[in-house]
Amino acid sequence: MGTLNINPELDDQIFNTINPLDPEEFRKQGHMIVNFLADYYQNIEKYPVCSQVNPGYLQKLVPNSAPDNPEPLENILQDVKRDIIPGITHWQSPNFFAYFPSSGSIAGFLGEMLSVGFNVVGFNWISSPAATELESIVMDWFGKMLNLPNSFLFSGGGGGVLQGTTCEAMLCTIVAARDQMLRKIGRENFGKLVVYTSDQTHFSLKKAAHIAGIDPENFRVIPTTKANEYVLCPKSLRLAILKDTKEGMIPLFLCATIGTTSTTSVDPLRSLCEIAKEYGIWVHVDAAYAGSACICPEFQHFLDGIENANSFSLNAHKWFFSTLDCCCLWVKDPSALTKALSTNPECLRNKATELKQVIDYKDWQIALSRRFRALKLWLVLRNYGVTNLRNLIRSHVNMAKHFEGLIAMDKRFEIFVPRKFAMVCFRISPSVISRVSTTFDEEQVNKYNTKLVESINSSGKLYLTHGVVGGIYIIRFAIGASLTDYMHVDVAWKVIQDHANVLLIPGSF
């Protein structure tokens, strides 16, 4: 019998191996992280809203290789404060008015903590029954709050699923529509499939269509006009469809939007859906930003006609106080998704699935693995309640009305399009530019407004983003950060005015 050789160095390494899930160490370090984040929110207004660092800044601050030995969390958090926070654009700052909101909440954070803490992989029901069943319950809850038709709820033969982002929801629905159509017309006609959209539809649709294999030449972008408030015109849609059908093309998919990115325009769902129905076109309704507002009865008229759509999505991580990522997608016909996206390997076979007693959400999405996202949405709904959630959204809308009133009192500015939700689109008025500039045309007006936004953002006091619609540069002021109050709106307006005062001095630009 051979002798046992023991390597002392190896034995020491085994003896000193840490337990990565030691409960007491987790308790200790978890408290440190919560306290760190609480301090961060207490002091968030002290930081420049938009990060002021230069590209590549972090490479100069951190070592060029990972440490061999463990470092205490206290030291790491000091580095976060010194090196990481300066490189963060603070989306939760009350002075963040850019893009669309990514509204956070205590309930959203804690729900995320529970989800990460359990760390289940809920690809099918048997892999974690609660993850599947809570998701289907929460999606029906939310659907009822929106007053969606019963056909979009599990109770009515439809159903909802939590995706990561709008792009994923669009890709899933395009793939479902594609395969549904190809089963009717044959795969040899793939190259004839056409997707319809307006020039205000979110750019993620084009990406989704490309991934789904739609010929880029078959992606129809229908122009909109200011006279029509940049909505997708049903007459223009019909003309585009007629042209395609005469040329032997096959209309497949239409994306209508409730709350477009540039101006929060709302497409006329009823009219668009009626046209789409004539041609067997799948209609997806993208309400990524504004859909959350539709839990308020006064906004539900924007969903008029939704009963004739095939799918509907919104981002709860935008304006529903749930952390990224949490895109809610409802479909009338779940089988359209599952027929296109199902996988049935032997290792995932189980009795509940084979007897069709359960939902397997892996077949409702692109990826196989999935997180327990329903926990955070469940916590948000239960911890705040429908009444409070409505009032939070209304408070943002009322602050936007207030900001709109401030603009109206300063004749140097103009509202570009009527406000519908909690975003105001405005710009320095062309009439003012004509008095302070030696040259005057739309390009010059755009340059002044561009300079104003750049100047404001470089100050770090607030963060704004812009849009270009019909060649016109507009400033977007989106209210939705959870910490924002009227005081912050008033201060933001003062900052805007102060920068405009400097910019509009004759000869200064």
TrEMBL record:
Keyword Nucleus, does the record have it?
Answer: no
Q: Matching Pfam families, A to Z?
A: Pyridoxal_deC
Q: Name one GO molecular function term.
A: L-tryptophan decarboxylase activity
- Which residues does the record list as N6-(pyridoxal phosphate)lysine (modified residue)? K318
Which GO CC terms are listed, alphabetically?
cytoplasm
Q: Which GO terms describe its biological process?
A: amino acid metabolic process; carboxylic acid metabolic process
Question: Which keywords annotate this record?
Answer: Decarboxylase, Lyase, Pyridoxal phosphate
Cofactor(s) recorded for this entry are: pyridoxal 5'-phosphate
Q: Which residues cross the membrane?
A: none
Asked if Lyase is a keyword of the record, the answer is yes
Annotated family: Belongs to the group II decarboxylase family.
| Protein name, UniProt field | Tyrosine decarboxylase 1
Q: Which organism is it from?
A: Nicotiana attenuata
Q: What is the lineage of its organism?
A: Eukaryota, Viridiplantae, Streptophyta, Embryophyta, Tracheophyta
